[in-house]
């Protein structure tokens, strides 16, 4: 029904905002990550998702389309509703969530509000094949044992976790390895190499 609403931010609450458009104030439920990108009295564009239930209609809003897409993926998982979906997006940004899912990090996901071990396992099971492996962001601590340490083996393991074969991962890392690069940089360059190769 609504793709987005553009207007002035009139109120910022703990888990919602009010945005005014044509003298109408729309209350929109949002994540804390979206709130961080908004300022009172400033013009903003909020992407929206209309939630319709038997006894209620409400709007969920997102600062970016990327966050909206992750919300739609999360709420497609059985037993995850809009409230829990927004709670998960308050816990981590979409790219980080994608990394947790692809690396099957149950421990990290289960720390999100409203998510226990069983729910984390269900999220991974139902969404692992739907995450864009080129649009994720691993935490440095997941990628290397030290901030500047170079580890080709860890880079290969991370690429394998994204679904690439060991042969593809080893080839990409070998092509992209350079002195003084940490594991995260090797992975980024390797992904760029793999993507460029697939376009040839």
TrEMBL record:
Pfam families: HHH_5 (PF14520), RuvA_C (PF07499), RuvA_N (PF01330). It is found in: Cytoplasm. One of its GO terms (cellular component) is Holliday junction resolvase complex. Its main location: cytoplasm. Residues 151-200 are annotated as: Domain III. Keywords: Cytoplasm, DNA damage, DNA recombination, DNA repair, DNA-binding. GO terms for molecular function: ATP binding; four-way junction DNA binding; four-way junction helicase activity. Residues 72-91, 107-126 form the Helix-hairpin-helix DNA-binding motif class domain. InterPro entries: DNA_helicase_Holl-junc_RuvA_I (IPR013849), Hlx-hairpin-Hlx_DNA-bd_motif (IPR003583), NA-bd_OB-fold (IPR012340), RuvA (IPR000085), RuvA_2-like (IPR010994), RuvA_C (IPR011114), RuvA_C_sf (IPR036267). GO terms for biological process: DNA recombination; DNA repair. SMART domains: HhH1. It comes from the Bacteria. Homotetramer. Forms an RuvA(8)-RuvB(12)-Holliday junction (HJ) complex. HJ DNA is sandwiched between 2 RuvA tetramers; dsDNA enters through RuvA and exits via RuvB. An RuvB hexamer assembles on each DNA strand where it exits the tetramer. Each RuvB hexamer is contacted by two RuvA subunits (via domain III) on 2 adjacent RuvB subunits; this complex drives branch migration. In the full resolvosome a probable DNA-RuvA(4)-RuvB(12)-RuvC(2) complex forms which resolves the HJ. Belongs to the RuvA family. Has three domains with a flexible linker between the domains II and III and assumes an 'L' shape. Domain III is highly mobile and contacts RuvB. The RuvA-RuvB-RuvC complex processes Holliday junction (HJ) DNA during genetic recombination and DNA repair, while the RuvA-RuvB complex plays an important role in the rescue of blocked DNA replication forks via replication fork reversal (RFR). RuvA specifically binds to HJ cruciform DNA, conferring on it an open structure. The RuvB hexamer acts as an ATP-dependent pump, pulling dsDNA into and through the RuvAB complex. HJ branch migration allows RuvC to scan DNA until it finds its consensus sequence, where it cleaves and resolves the cruciform DNA. This is Holliday junction branch migration complex subunit RuvA.
